Every structure is written in C-alpha cells, then in structure tokens.
Known about the structure:
- By secondary structure, the protein is mostly helical.
- The chain contains six helices and three strands, in the order H-H-H-E-H-E-E-H-H.
- It is 60% helix and 12% strand.
- 17% of the residues are buried.
Amino acid sequence: MRYVALFILSMVFWLLITFKFSAANIAAGAVASAITAAIFGRYYFYNVYKFLQPRRWVWFIVYLTTFIWACIKANFDVAYRVLHPAMPIRPGIVKVKTTLQSEFARTLLANSITMTPGTITVDIIGDEMYIHWIYIRSEDPAQYTRMVIGRFEEYIKKFAE
C-alpha cells in the first residue's frame, strides 16, 4: 500500500508541476511516479491509511494557510530589516523544544521554520531544535519557542502524527 500511495502522491505532484493533461505528459508522469515509488517506497510512511482521513486533510489546509501567512509576514519583516538604515538585527541561535513525536512531523516543522524568512533550522537533536533567528525578541525560552514555532507545531500535530 505504501508504494501505491507514493505513486499517487508523485503523480499528483507531477500534474501540479507540469499542469498539462496530455496523454504524453500523463504517461511520462506515470513512468516517473512508478520509478519514484519503486525506489523510495520502502522509506515511505508505515501507516499510509492516516492520509486517507478527511480530518487530516482539513488540518493540512489550515496549516498551509497559516504557513503562507507566516511567510508573507516574515518576508515583510526581513525586507524592513534589510532596508532600514540602522539594520535592526539581533541574530542568534535559540534552542526550541518540540512536543512532536514522529520524525516526519519534526522534519516538517524544521522545514517550515527554514522556509520562513528570517529563521533557519540548524540542527535537530531528539526533541530539541537549534534555530538561527535574525532577530531574537525575547530571552525567555517559553516565549521565543512560541514565537518561532508559532502555530506550526499545533497544526502539524493534528495532521502528521
């Protein structure tokens, strides 16, 4: 079942990227998806049936909306800091503790943080993440954990674990 789920996801991804629905494109996508599923299927999730639950898809859409909004705000924040004559930055690396259990969920959180301008995940050790932040707003670990992780962790927990 893992191979089939990975094939379907790869095919959907192919069609979203190319956005062509010709017979040749669908055939090429099917071949590429089959090769991807054959090579990487054994590394795919063990409980594929979680991805068939509609509740998880709803939370995934909520997460995407939250992530896109956070990226837009972070882009403006970084642009402000770059364009400001005094360049108000206070960079540093903060240690953030996450409550996510699965490696997939932690990786998704780390990638979400990295893709948000102004932050980058440097390392993950157990349930702790080391994140480089362009402007450290607080010295309190609980407060900057809430600021950096935001609602990402809350929504990822609802659809990825």
